[in-house]
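Dear support,

I submitted the protein below through the web form. The confirmation email said the job was done, but the results page showed an empty box. After a refresh the structure appeared. I'm attaching both so you can tell me whether what I see now is the final result or a partial one.
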Amino acid sequence: MHVTRTLIPTLALLTLTLAACERRAAESAGANNAPTVAPGAMPSSTTLLTLEVDDMVCKGCVGDVREALMAIPGVVAAEVTLETKRAVITLDASNAPDPASLCKTLSEAGHEARVIATPPKGT
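What the results page shows now:
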């Protein structure tokens, strides 16, 4: 009896979470893993930064992460991949945001991220 009381609310929560992920995936249908590039010309000098986003579970999460990153000034492109749980971000070298601010923005969007590859110094 105790197991049933514990299991039913847990299953209900998982069902609601899965439904939310499916809804977000449907909203971003057609979105693939191709990088999203900011409007306008590509800057003459760019740098790459890679973030790990472990809590992505669906294509909706990928869309949320990509959208949050592309809203940050200095982000030129964002390639977000569910399978690797990584975001490879192309930054305008002359206007690159701090990696910590990128992680903070994703945290505010509901996804925890950490830097796993930073650009070399002086680029």
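Response: this is the final, complete result; the empty box was a page-load delay. The helical segments are 2-27, 59-70, 99-108.
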